[in-house]
Amino acid sequence: MKQITKSVIKNSLKRIFLYRACIVRLKLMGVEKVFSYTLANETGVTSDQVRKDFSEFSIKGNKRGGYDINDLLEKMEKLFHRNKDNNIVLIGMGNMGLALSKYSKFVQRHMNIVATFDIDPFKQKMRSGIPVYSMSRLKEIIERFKVKVAILAVPEISAQEVVDELIRHGITGIVNFAPVLLKVPPDVIINNVNLCDELESVIYYVHKQMKVNGLKNLELLYRDMKY
User: Fold this and answer.
1) 3-79 CATH, one of 3.30.450.20, 3.20.20.80, 3.40.605.10, 1.10.10.10
2) 61-108 pLDDT, tens per residue?
3) Is 0.85 topped by the overall pTM?
4) Sheet bearing 189-192, strands edge to edge
5) Hey, what CATH topology would domain 86-193 get?
């Protein structure tokens, strides 16, 4: 039975990404050992939270001696399967899809977009680093490269239809940039990324902070007038 997709990315996993970024930076600085309180200070959490997150993902260290940075990075490499190449297909070569297809960090992290797809014949004739195929070749490419993960960057109106086709051909993980909640079987993982929502979230907090600062300024003005 299909169900509406919800966020599947745990907050603890999001924090692991933050810890890793911090650890990489420390390694570049020549640091060999790192303590939980250092990671806590750098990422805005508590030491207990760092240790709890590491324990959840079976990352162990010496509480007194700290964590060996190289060992931490090696365990995180295995956690995110960066010790092998992960082939990915990208559906939709509009502005968003085109930008994603050119993002060099994917390759650096062993995520290879092996093919892109679009219904526009003109885009299928594009000559760039990654070929653009018609949707009729989706099954062939997925099977050839043993793809399990797809990036969806298509218009809202066609997103569900495309997802259904991806799932029929064996895709079990999808990063969805289409501004719509999709229905998929329980064993299919979808991460919904809505850039407008992300921007509006920032806008909300910016105006909220402005309001708080405005009230503080009024209180200070009232206090000065009082005295």
Assistant:
1) 1.10.10.10
2) 766 678 889 999 888 888 877 667 789 999 999 999 999 999 988 888
3) no
4) 132-133, 111-117, 86-91, 149-152, 173-176, 189-192
5) Rossmann fold (3.40.50)
